[in-house]
Specification:
By secondary structure, this protein is of the alpha/beta class. The chain has helices spanning 8-14, 27-37, 49-57, 74-84, 89-93, 123-131, 146-154, 160-175, 195-207, 228-237, 242-256, 263-275, 290-295, 304-307, 315-319, 322-327, 338-346, 351-362, 371-381, 388-403, 425-437, 444-459, 530-540, 545-548, 550-571, and strands spanning 63-67, 98-102, 105-110, 138-143, 185-189, 468-473, 485-491, 499-505, 510-516, 524-527, 582-588, 594-600. The chain is flat and about 85 Å long.
């Protein structure tokens, strides 16, 4: 049996994965390992670095707070700013308060606020004086998680300045703003960084690290038995890479749904993608494991497509890791459609699917048509195996693989996004998210579908109306399930200041469904994250509102209340008061078209 090389780079990368002692989760430990094993570090572009450095070099610098969730890179930022301003690695590594003197001012670095003792945290009183301009010779760079930072400011001696600054910090966190006039402070919330933008950059840094050169002379780097680590790397490097593209799309949808994945979790994901295997120690491959997995014929279990979802881990372990818990919300592998399963199960013998079977299954002898899958499928079809779960596990793995293999031009034909819980996710990305971010016009058919879905939810009637948004009540503006009393039609197309449209808030990148009213009143917005888009779309296509998501149903009824409130305001604004002495009852005919019946109110 051939032996594999021992590569320090693989050992280093392994530390980023989901192992009990995840040393590479922490910036300080990373630097020690890099020096000890002479590893070329993974450099990540820090989008705020130059701006922060220039602040401290300016004539009127302000204090800076770096906040965010654990793993967003706050300590990494602090260290890079320290180096850019002339600090040394040796001084930074010492377990003491780091200070620099620059242009007559002292800069105090607090790389982790939670590590300061109760007594040391009293230095924040000096920081408060500095932020309010009463101390002009000292400025700060502080890193802290959101909750830790607010607790620290609450638990020190409460001078008037401390109370003032604490309220301002809380206000900036809630509003998402970076600064407020009159205060010498900038707050950078690193949780606002987009994981979908960071992910492809980290992938490229990992794939092009010179540490991979240590694999070149390994006996498993070529030939019939190729090391799964090397195989997974090759698949990430392939031209027009669908794995990176589809994962980036999933991460984009996470951001749209306000599910932020910090830098630390992205590193964990990439390490697991490359090294995952359920049959080795810590579920992550080492170079010395490779001969054994070939001997045991389990190399197929190192599939990058399974590792993306943490399938190499125990269920309990997988569910406790944010990135896998988040990605598995999409249900990829558990969800399917008839076409995909027909290809996988019957494609070998069915002429209708044979070409697709050969293209997507037979051509991949490593993770597709390996002998284990073929054998399990044959036994399943011939009823020879009593263990159907084994084949179903293979089937799940193949669905996961196909999600990252089916090319863009076949997405619609093979209903790619039906492999996820959100069948409208691809459409949301392509037809709503990308046009809005590219400042293109969204096709009117999607506004029409949203309108139809909202009408069905808000009236409780199975209606087909999609050109007008129907505002109706049950007579007392309650959130009744059935609302037959027409209050107003609002045209989908802009009409006298009224409209229904999609809108992008450029400040926070959130997408909204916006309903505008006449008389110059503010519009009413509904934050349209993926699950709400899916809910409204499914209702428009015939799903009952309460059967899909009770939470979404209640959200839309709450939105309806806001619309009705704004309608009341519009009726009492301006010179003309609307006559509402005649009630109009909604009636739906057998074709789903809305008819009106008027009743005079005496």
């Amino acid at each position: 049996m051939a032996k594999s090389n021992s590569n320090n780079w693989i050992s280093f990368l392994r530390q980023y994965g989901p192992i009990p002692r995840n040393d590479n989760m922490y910036d300080e430990t990373i630097q020690r390992i890099i020096k000890k094993k002479k590893i070329v570090p993974i450099n990540i572009e820090l989008i705020h670095l130059e701006e922060i450095v220039q602040n401290f070099l300016s004539e009127s610098p302000v204090s800076i707070i770096l906040t965010g969730t654990a793993g967003d890179g706050k300590t990494y930022y602090c260290r890079e700013v320290w180096k850019e301003l002339g600090g040394t690695e040796i001084d930074w590594a010492e377990d003491k308060k780091n200070e620099l003197f620059l242009s007559g001012k002292k800069i105090i670095f607090i790389k982790d606020l939670s590590e300061l003792s109760t007594e040391d945290k009293e230095i924040l009183t000096l920081m408060a004086d500095s932020i309010l301009g009463e101390e002009n010779n000292t400025i700060f760079l502080v890193a802290a998680n959101d909750g830790q930072m607010l607790d620290s400011w609450k638990n020190i001696h409460q001078t008037s300045n401390v109370s003032n600054v604490r309220e301002i910090i809380e206000e900036l966190l809630i509003s998402g703003k970076k600064k407020r006039d009159g205060y010498k402070l900038s707050l950078y919330n690193l949780s606002d960084s987009n994981s979908a933008l960071l992910f492809p950059k980290i992938i490229q840094e990992v794939l092009h690290n010179p540490g991979w050169e240590g694999c070149n002379n390994c006996s498993f780097s070529s030939g019939e038995q190729i090391c799964p680590i090397f195989e997974n790397k090759k698949r990430l490097e392939s031209e027009n890479n669908l794995i990176v593209r589809r994962l980036t799309e999933l991460l984009t949808l996470c951001e749209v749904n306000q599910l932020h994945l910090p830098l630390r979790q992205l590193f964990l994901l990439i390490a697991n993608m490359l090294l995952g295997h359920p049959g080795v120690k810590d579920k992550l491959l080492k170079c010395s494991d490779i001969p054994e997995i070939f001997e045991e014929d389990t190399a197929h279990l190192a599939s990058i497509y399974r590792n993306i979802f943490g399938e190499n881990l125990l269920v309990r372990q997988r569910n406790n890791i944010d990135v896998f818990n988040t990605l598995n919300k999409y249900g990829i592998g558990s969800e399917t459609n008839g076409i995909i399963d027909n290809i996988l199960i019957f494609g070998e013998d069915d002429s209708k699917y044979k070409e697709l079977y050969e293209k997507f299954i037979l051509t991949d002898t490593k993770y597709g048509a390996d002998k284990n899958f073929i054998s399990a499928k044959k036994a399943y079809l011939e009823g020879e195996s009593l263990d159907k779960d084994t084949f179903l596990d293979f089937l799940k793995a193949q669905r996961q693989r196909l999600f990252f293999v089916i090319p863009t031009e076949l997405e619609e034909e093979l209903m790619l996004w039906r492999l996820t819980t959100f069948q409208y996710a691809g459409e949301f990305l392509k037809e709503i998210y990308k046009p809005l971010h590219g400042q293109y016009r969204v096709n009117s058919q999607y506004i029409s579908r949203m309108t139809k879905g909202l009408n069905r939810i808000m009236t409780g009637l199975l209606i087909e109306e999609k050109d007008h948004l129907i505002l109706s009540t049950s007579g007392n503006h309650s959130q009744a399930k059935i609302s037959r009393i027409l209050e107003k039609y609002i045209s989908v197309n802009p009409d006298r200041g009224e409209y229904v449209k999609f809108d992008l808030d450029k400040e926070n990148s959130k997408i909204y469904l916006v309903v505008g009213f006449s008389n110059g009143l503010p519009s009413v917005r509904l934050h349209l994250q993926l699950i709400r888009y899916e809910f409204i779309s499914r209702v428009a296509e015939g799903v009952l509102p309460g059967s899909f998501s009770r939470e979404c149903y209640e959200d839309i009824l709450a939105y309806k209340s806001k619309l009705l409130k704004r309608l009341e305001e519009s009726r009492t604004t301006g010179d003309k008061v609307e006559d509402i002495s005649v009630l109009k009852l909604l009636k739906v005919n057998e074709k789903g078209l809305v008819e009106q019946k008027s009743l005079e109110v005496f």
